[in-house]
Amino acid sequence: MLWDDPVTKGLAKSLDVAALRQKVVAQNIANLNTPGYKRSYVVFSEELARAREKLSLRLTHPRHIPAGEIAGEPQVKVERSTSRRSDGNNVDLDQEMLDLVTNQLHYNMLAQKISERYATWRYIINEGRG
Amino acid sequence: MRINPYVVPLSPTEKEEKKASGPATFGDLFQEALQKVNRQQLEAEEALQGLISGEVEDLHQVMIAGEKARLSLQLTVQLTNKVIEAYREITRMQI
Amino acid sequence: MELFTSFHISGSALTAEKLRVDTVASNLANMQTTRTAAGGPYRRKTVVFAERLARVRQAPPSFLGRGVRVAAVVEDPNPPRLEYDPEHPDADEEGFVAYPNIDLAKEMTDLITASRSYEANTTVINTAKSLYLKALEIGRG
């Protein structure tokens, strides 16, 4: 169909990623005081690709493995760094709250954009009367 | 809401008119469009069902599926209107 | 219901921290309790948190995090605080009374920890709610 173009699909996919990120951040914040808990985070290949472009990282050796992501699907990874806290928990509340807010704004923007796209299609189909 | 394949049945005379107009029949395209609409309606319904049964993870997926279904339906309705309008134009033509 | 996973996650944290607060309240209320039904002085209680995960039902890789749960409420194994008071009805043969080993400062710290977490998780719930409301607007106007 007309509205199954790459951009619209991209918006829908990004919404999936943002929704997943929300849950992951929620999980981190819920486990703020859990001994030994290690924070999780979401990686999405599209976002990494753009970041990689900026850093101009190149796979110069045949055995270079790109940061292990499945193309087109978001993945949840665990950050197993040591923490400064005695209970082994590495959740940084300030960082999580920041992620929470940025993700919310991102989600809102995506929802807005995709809604506008569908509204435009409606307008076109209904010759300005719908 | 489901649209079965035989929705908007054209009256027998109209159908013959269509078949007579040539190999790349509008009727075929129309049929194809209808099937697409039906599929998207079914998708939207499945998403809604998922919402009700608690399987769907994200609300935005349901909303998007609903939007697609609505657009498909509107497109079909508009196409139908155009077909009928064109038919009327033809019948009004003085030969 | 899967749709409201985010709420379940944050909600579980609110429940857990609430239990922590209840434990602190119990500890503070019993700071001077030298006699319990089990015999001996009141023993300080603490909560042990653990990550809560969904019971895996299907194969597809989905996020399994479901917040936090209280794995146990444990009693402090440290020995009680002894005070010399031979007149006290609960004094032992040597005149010492065993008091609960509860430190006010420590309890206050736990209270602040719980409060900070409670506030943060409430913010997450509000954020999740705004996301859902925004999603409902898709296709409207």
Low-confidence residue ranges of chain A: none
Oligomer: heterotrimer
Helix-strand pattern of chain B: HHH
Low-confidence runs of at least 5 consecutive residues of chain B: 5-20
List the strand order in the largest sheet of chain A.
Answer: 1-2
Average per-residue pLDDT of chain B, rounded, comes to 72
Helix content estimate of chain B: over 70%
Description:
The complex is a heterotrimer of chains A (130), B (95) and C (141). Helices cover 53% and strands 6% of the residues of chain A. Chain A is mostly helical. Chain A has one domain. Chain B is an all-alpha fold and 95 residues long. Chain B has one domain. Residues 5-20 of chain B have low confidence and may be disordered. The model of chain C has no long low-confidence stretch (mean pLDDT 92). In chain C, the strands form two sheets. A two-stranded antiparallel sheet of chain C has the order 1-2. Chain C has a two-stranded antiparallel sheet with strand order 3-4. In chain C, helix 1 packs antiparallel against helix 2 (104-136). At the A-C interface, helix 1 and helix 3 of A face helix 1, strand 1, strand 2 and helix 2 of C.
Secondary structure elements and their pairing?
The complex is a heterotrimer of chains A (130), B (95) and C (141).
Chain A lengths: L5 H25 L9 E4 L1 H11 L19 E4 L14 H33 L5
Antiparallel strand pairs in A: 1-2
Helix pairs in contact in A: 1-3
Chain B lengths: L11 H9 L5 H28 L5 H34 L3
Helix pairs in contact in B: 2-3
Chain C lengths: L4 H25 L15 E9 L11 E11 L5 E4 L11 E4 L4 H33 L5
Antiparallel strand pairs in C: 1-2, 3-4
List keywords for this structure.
heterotrimer, A: 130 residues, mainly alpha, two-stranded antiparallel ribbon, 3 helices, B: 95 residues, elongated
Summarize the structure.
The complex is a heterotrimer of chains A (130), B (95) and C (141). Helices cover 75% and strands 0% of the residues of chain B.
